[in-house]
Design goal:
Length: 381
């Protein structure tokens, strides 16, 4: 019964969720004292039947927005514009103020499940703060061998910004500062609601890895800081060496040496071992998975069974997997005749067979007993 009820609710929601459309979904305004402005939205009925759309508003500034009508009848697939008048006060709080414009399908309540279509729009009204006020955005881009830093400064204060500069300190994952660079100085006045860009460039000579840039912006005896993480180079694990020879007719331990070129440990690193003959795959194996530390070299272990592979040269491909990336390495692998049994045979041949120690002991014992018997016999006479 619960499953049936769930299916019914899902079907009802699916049939109603797109019943109403709204355009635009967002409106952006800069605050002006005592501003009076007309705002227009288009409400769309997306279904083939009539419906009534109910408008409601939310937010601290909602009382300052009035619509000519709040219950909008819509015919099948009809689009209708609704107009509202925004009358702002002399002053509002600084920052971003939001009015939520909610459009809901108007339905009479019933004893059955009552699902209403609904769509939201938002009106963003940004007001300046008293005095000097900057909101920065730091963008970091890799360009060939260079790292470009772009600081966008937006003036949300009542005062114009005529001087600004920034320094950017770059630190590694341990928090150690590796270098500091300076941006250019502000070359233009930033008026209220205006923007300007400061730039800096860095030619890194550090290891690949994750770093953090901290920009300190100075303007009119004020200071603001912003941080942003970025990467130098790419996450990479290199396959360094692998066995050149393995023996026939046995399960060989197969050690692959790898090196982490990245600044953090990487978990679940493993490799596929693909053996080919004349371009055709004849055997595939997988190593055990392992964790490799930052900048670490280590070996990962696999096993290769050559019971069904003849002596000779093969092509081998190693596919190393880590963090959704793959490193490959190709080489030549030679399967040679097993030599362990021959060595054992040689050792056996070289060893001189030892006399039976127990037999020797018994012979000596018999001789001693014979000597003692003869001595006792002679003594009695």
């Amino acid at each position: 019964m619960k499953k049936i009820l769930f299916i019914i609710i899902t079907l009802l929601l699916a049939s109603n969720v797109y019943a109403i459309g709204l355009s635009p979904a967002r409106v952006f305004l800069n605050f002006e004292s005592n501003l009076k402005k007309e705002i227009t939205f288009t409400i769309v009925n997306t279904i083939d039947s009539e419906l009534n759309a109910q408008i409601s508003l939310e937010g601290e500034l909602a009382p300052y927005l009035v619509f000519e009508e709040t219950l909008i009848p819509l015919g099948p697939n009809e689009r209708k514009k609704v107009k509202g008048t925004l009358t702002l006060p002399e002053k509002i709080k600084g920052g971003e103020n939001v009015i939520v414009f909610r459009v809901t399908e108007a339905k009479e309540a019933t004893s059955m499940i009552n699902v209403r279509a609904e769509v939201l729009g938002k009106i963003f009204i940004t007001a300046v703060y008293e005095g000097y006020y900057i909101e920065p955005i730091l963008t970091i881009k890799n360009s060939n061998d260079k790292i470009n830093f772009e600081l966008e400064l937006s003036n949300f204060g009542t005062e114009e910004i005529t001087q600004a500069s920034a320094s950017i300190s770059i630190s590694d994952q341990e928090g150690s500062v590796v270098t500091s660079i300076a941006t250019n100085n502000l070359e233009q006045t930033i008026k209220s609601y205006g923007k300007a860009i400061l730039n800096a460039e860095w030619l890194p000579s550090v290891k690949a890895g994750s770093y953090k840039a901290k920009a300190t912006i100075l303007f009119h005896d004020e200071m603001i800081e912003i941080e942003q993480g970025f990467k130098v180079g790419e996450l990479f694990v290199e396959v360094i060496t692998l066995p050149e020879n393995i023996e026939s007719g046995k399960i060989n331990e197969f050690m692959i040496e790898i090196e982490n070129k990245w600044s953090t440990p990487i978990e679940n690193v493993y490799a596929d071992i693909i053996i080919k003959k004349d371009g055709k795959t004849v055997a595939t194996y997988k190593t055990l998975s392992d964790t490799i530390g930052a900048w670490e070299k280590k070996q990962i272990k696999g096993f290769v069974d050559t019971s069904n592979l003849g002596i000779g040269e093969y092509e081998i491909e190693i596919l190393l997997h880590y963090e959704g990336k793959t490193t490959s390495k190709e080489a030549t692998l030679t399967i040679v005749e097993q030599t362990i049994m021959e060595e054992e045979k040689e050792e056996i041949i070289e060893e001189e067979p030892e006399p039976n120690k127990l037999l020797t002991f018994l012979i000596v014992l018999v001789i001693l007993l014979a000597i003692v018997s003869v001595y006792l016999f002679v003594k009695k006479k």
